[in-house]
Write a structure and sequence with these properties.
The longest helix has about 40 residues. The strands form 3 sheets. The chain has a two-stranded antiparallel ribbon with strand order 1-2. Strands 3-4 form a two-stranded antiparallel sheet. Strands 5-6 form a two-stranded antiparallel sheet. It is about 60% helix and about 10% strand. Helix 9 packs antiparallel against helix 10. A hairpin with a 5-residue loop joins strand 3 and strand 4. The chain contains 18 helices and 6 strands.
Length: about 400
């Protein structure tokens, strides 16, 4: 049975409202949180659907790990790069911030010191790379959140919207509904805001970053609104970081796209729990968020299944076309085309295979001579190479 929010019950069956609230709040399977929402103690109920979602997520996570191990090591690195760029793209999209894949690739190159150019969103990419490499500060205190905010978002925040408090903001900020109605003002004074954030971080750590605790944290961070700007992106970044403690990192890195594709439902889930009539019942949001994690996990599993199947298919095909060094160059192009966000230059192929650039060039020419459809793209003065897989499919069908 679908879980009905208390705010809905209040308007549909006002006579049952207090009775249902008391039953839920004092229930045997109710988790009480160490913070208040609109003056009411926050809580959520461990309903059967919630437990089923958690079990399904962990089951799919195991399948993802098994599929991931089947990919070549270099392909994993390329897949990570493409995925973190996509996550940055979609988390910006949710907030209505325009960023292109090309722009984010430039930020990635700057973040990994492949380029010394200044790049917008460089901090965001540094953050996701740090998440992958476990280089970020452990998030245990409000001060830790501020350190990550400064690293990830501060350079892209307008001067008047930068934090002006000891840790967060000292001024007021309004939390708005999807219909542009003010739901409440972010917590003030800053001392109360710091105490709120500290309490919710202690809860998440105490629960060892369990999925339900991360779901509750995601809502509570939005409710607290610690910053003038960047709260949504920061909430999604921290939630992905926490998810990576117990799930494959790609699941967290697929969350923003999953949420963006159902953006209205995302904001509605916040609105439901922001309603004072919900009296601190976060169950609707926890259920919603875990359903998004489950959807993200399923998307990653399906994507990896397709990737491994395609890699096997095209590898078998390439073995029938050529061999030796030419075959190695073809396999490298295949990996890049399937798993990277951009093509590869002759220098990249040279380093990957341990052969000279002239040898790479000769073999690329040889592949083109025997009819392999290679796409050449210019990146500045540099030529990047990929395979045209659609054309290859057509050649296979006509063979």
């Amino acid at each position: 049975m679908q879980y009905e929010s208390l705010s809905t019950v209040y308007y549909k069956n006002p006579g049952q409202y207090e009775q249902l609230y008391n039953a839920r709040f004092s229930g045997e399977h109710t988790v009480h949180l160490p913070v208040k929402i609109h003056g009411a103690r926050a809580f959520f109920c461990l309903v059967p659907e919630l437990l089923s979602l958690t079990e399904a997520i962990h089951r799919v996570d195991k399948e993802i790990i098994a599929l991931w191990k089947k990919l070549p090591q270099k392909s994993r690195v390329r897949h990570y790069t493409r995925s973190l760029i996509e996550e940055a793209l979609w988390t910006n999209d949710i907030e209505g911030i325009h960023s292109s894949r090309q722009e984010l690739r430039k930020a990635f190159d700057a973040a990994t010191e492949k380029s010394n150019q200044k790049a917008k969103f460089k901090g965001l990419l540094i953050g996701y790379i740090g998440m992958l490499n476990h280089d970020l500060v452990a998030v245990k205190t409000p001060q830790d959140i501020r350190k990550i905010y400064d690293l990830v978002l501060l350079d892209d925040i307008a001067g008047e919207d930068r934090p002006d408090g000891d840790v967060f903001r000292k001024g007021s900020v309004s939390v708005m509904s999807t219909s542009d109605k003010e739901l409440h003002k972010g917590i003030l004074p800053e001392s109360d805001l710091i105490a709120f954030v500290s309490a919710m971080l202690s809860y998440v750590e105490q629960e060892h970053h369990s999925l339900v605790s991360i779901a509750a944290f995601h809502y509570l961070f939005g409710y607290a609104h610690p910053f003038y700007d960047g709260n949504g992106r920061m909430a999604r970044f921290l939630s992905s970081l926490f998810l990576s403690e117990n799930l494959h990192i790609l699941i967290g890195w697929n969350m923003s796209q999953t949420i963006s594709e159902a953006k209205n439902a995302y904001y509605k889930a916040f609105d439901v729990c922001n309603n004072p009539r919900s009296k601190g019942d976060l169950t609707p949001f926890v259920l919603y968020y875990l359903s998004m994690v489950a959807q993200s996990a399923e998307g990653i599993r399906a994507s990896l299944e397709e990737a491994t199947a395609r890699y096997k298919h095209y590898t078998n095909w390439s073995e029938t076309i050529t061999e030796g060094t030419t075959g190695e160059v073809l396999d490298t192009l295949l990996e890049v085309t399937l798993f990277s966000d951009k093509g590869i230059g002759t220098g990249g192929i040279s380093r990957y295979l341990g052969i000279s650039i002239p040898t790479v060039s000769r073999n690329l020419q040889r592949l083109q001579e025997i009819g392999i459809p290679i796409v050449v793209e210019l990146s500045g003065r540099k030529k990047l190479y990929q395979l045209d897989l659609e054309r290859i499919d057509q050649l296979e069908k006509s063979a």
